[in-house]
Design goal:
Blueprint lengths: L59 H13 L21 H7 L2 H4 L11 H18 L3 E3 L5 H18 L7 E5 L5 H8 L3 E5 L9 H7 L4 E7 L11 H10 L3 E5 L19 E3 L2 H4 L14 E3 L11 E5 L2 E5 L2 H7 L17 H37 L4 E2 L9 E4 L10 H10 L6 E2 L9 E3 L7 H19 L3 H5 L12 H6 L8 H8 L1
Parallel strand pairs: 2-3, 2-4, 4-5, 5-6
Antiparallel strand pairs: 1-7, 6-7, 8-9, 10-11, 11-13, 12-13
Helix pairs in contact: 2-11, 4-11, 5-6, 11-13
The protein binds pyridoxal-5'-phosphate.
Length: about 500
């Protein structure tokens, strides 16, 4: 509360200072009338609760207001431009939501007998079909629950394929520095060692340095394309040929597929495994931990090692292959699934949204999605490049990377600049990532912003840049001034998070 201005209750205009629901407790208050519990014999064997249950008592209108006010504190793509680079925060068409709520899709259970959910299995099969078609790849594992989970799936498939060939000694994964941070993390989690390759002056992987690292102990090259500098890695085909010649596989982080969908087929680039973030390319509300879906397309060499389950279509309709034993005869003994990644069959609600998005856009519409996302990012970059500092020459893909050279000697940092954007009504762009440039600002406008929306955003970037260069340092150091909270101690919050709220009584007792 210390940060709120001097209004009587700490509210800011119509934005209320909201107490925790437990602090709003009126003991005994309830929004529902429950019938009295009929008297009967005690069946709890002495385990009956002795104290209060500890749930807050509130009336129905109090609860509705609490959650409505909280929802208004959540900046979302539905409230404004959300330029968070590498996250693809784009409009989620309401048609997707309508389809996901159809009772025949929303009210089914993954343990229902397959003959009662033929439509749902057909839908999974259809999403799989379009992912294979759009990527030019022969197989896809549908179950991974996020992009990073897809990376795990891809690397475990590679691991299984290497073990099968008797190449278990291949333990090294070559990862360019322009890769997403999840890439080296995943490689390490699967037990590989991570060998970084520097970026060249053009923001792409240094081909000679990468080639020099290939050898008999290399399991794979793991490369993000478009990379986290927002640039297309043009040497993919050469890299694929070289890593294959060295006996390894090529993993591509395809989370940024939205920049190339409908225009480039990763299968044509020699890629062996690539995850696709359905929640980015094919829309779905995401952030704050979910939901996500990261299906992984696989080359013919890796397809046999894909995890269960998958959908098959026989003369009796659709069914699921759920175990390695079941996989054997159905595929003439060629399938050797490495195991299972998660319960059930994948993120069904997201499959519905992804298919809706694909079918409503069509092939030409999807090509337009990638075209417009690239155009929007380049429009921003071109509109600020005379005053801010784009990190690399030439056009970008779906996001543009700037660094802090334009702030030199102003006393303003990338963090200050980002905080000042909050005062101007914008969620900041991704900052200090990627690490390959100093004080990075990574902006991804996506294809769903209008020209007017982009022009307003550009006006704010240019206005703040002018203010920084004019020496208005205090404006930046004090920002955000108009947000419900000012600068938080983010380091302390990360190092010693307070994860449990204690009632006043307990707090008092703890202090004594
Ligand atoms: C978003 C992203 C990821 C991680 O995806 P999650 O669904 O958050 O796990 C990985 N790589 C790149 C390039 C990304 O943009």
């Amino acid at each position: 509360m210390s940060n709120t201005p001097g209004t009587i209750l700490g509210h800011r205009g119509l934005d209320h200072e909201e107490a925790l629901i437990f602090e709003q407790d009126s003991p005994g208050m309830t929004g529902v009338d429950l019938p009295a519990v009929p008297a009967g014999p005690d069946r709890l064997g002495g385990l009956a609760r002795k104290g209060a249950i500890g749930l807050p008592g509130l009336s129905e209108p109090d609860i509705v207001r609490h959650y409505t006010r909280l929802s208004r504190k959540n900046y979302a793509i539905d409230s404004g431009l959300y330029p968070l680079g590498s996250c693809t925060m784009k409009h989620n068409p309401r048609l997707n939501e309508k389809m996901a709520r159809l009772p025949g899709l929303a009210d089914i259970h993954p343990l229902q007998p397959v003959e009662t959910v033929q439509g749902a299995l057909k839908l999974i099969d259809e999403v799989a079909h379009w992912l294979k078609t759009l990527t030019g790849m022969p197989a896809v594992a549908m179950s991974p629950g996020a992009g990073a989970h897809g990376e795990l799936c891809g690397l475990m498939s590679i691991h299984a394929a290497l073990e099968h060939k008797g190449h278990g000694h291949r333990r090294r994964i070559v990862v360019p520095e322009s890769a997403h941070g999840t890439n080296p993390a995943t490689a390490a989690l699967v037990g590989f060692t991570v060998d970084p390759v520097p970026a060249n002056a053009r923001g792409r992987v240094d081909l000679d340095a990468l080639t020099a690292k290939l050898g008999p102990d290399v399991a794979a090259v793991m490369i993000t394309n478009p990379n986290t500098c927002g640039l297309f890695e043009g040497d993919m085909r050469i890299i694929a040929d070289r890593v294959h010649a060295a006996g390894g596989f090529l993993y591509c982080d395809g989370a940024n597929f939205n920049a190339i969908v409908g225009r480039v087929r990763p299968g044509d680039l020699g890629i062996d495994a690539m995850h696709i973030n359905l929640h980015k390319t094919f829309s779905t509300p995401h952030g704050g931990g979910g939901p996500g879906a990261g299906p992984v397309v696989l080359s013919a060499a890796l397809a046999p090692f894909a995890p269960v389950p998958w959908v098959v279509h026989g003369k009796d309709g659709f069914s699921l292959v759920e175990t390695a034993a079941a996989a054997g005869p159905a595929s003439a003994g060629t399938a050797k699934p490495f195991g299972r990644l998660k319960g059930f069959h994948g993120q069904m609600g997201m499959f519905v949204r992804a298919l809706t998005y694909m079918l409503s856009h069509g092939r030409d519409g999807l090509a337009r999605v990638s075209g417009d996302s690239v155009l929007a990012a380049n429009y921003i970059m071109a509109s600020v490049s005379d005053v801010m500092t784009p990190s690399f020459d030439g056009p970008c893909m779906h996001e543009c990377l700037l660094d802090d050279r334009f702030l030199k000697d102003t006393g303003v940092t990338t963090l200050d600049f980002a905080k000042a954007m909050i005062d101007e009504g914008y969620h900041p762009m991704t900052v200090y990532f990627p690490l390959v440039v100093h004080g990075a600002m990574l902006i991804e406008p996506t294809e769903s912003e209008s020209k007017r929306s982009l022009d307003d955003f550009i006006k704010v970037l240019r206005g703040l840049t002018a203010a920084a260069k004019a020496g208005e340092v205090a404006r930046f150091k004090n920002a955000p001034m108009f947000a419900p909270r000012r600068r938080l101690d983010e380091t302390r919050a990360a190092r010693s998070p307070v994860l449990r709220w204690k009632p006043k009584l307990e707090q008092g007792a703890a202090a004594e």
